[in-house]
Specification:
about 40% helix, single chain
Amino acid sequence: MSKKYAVVTTVQTFKHRYVISEDRLQSLNHESPVELGWADDCVTTQCIDEFSQKYLDESIIESKWVEEDAVLELFEQDSELDYLKDWTKEKKLAYINYGLLLDRKK
């Protein structure tokens, strides 16, 4: 019988603030009068740095039971785990079962 694993998926919410001077916005386009919407474009295109950030909340969007094979498949699906894809099955299961809890005891 294969082990089952609880998989909890969450979304974290942060408030970000960006600040840019009117002069700098105008310097991006001298042909037209400066518009506030240009600041939105700067944030969207990531051409200005974040001024501040505040954590607001974490919300659970899904909890489910999955079989061992399915939980091991998550190593392939989740791109942020790229560096773990070459681990053996045993090492992956040890990471899931013990790694995170052991780190917290230090």
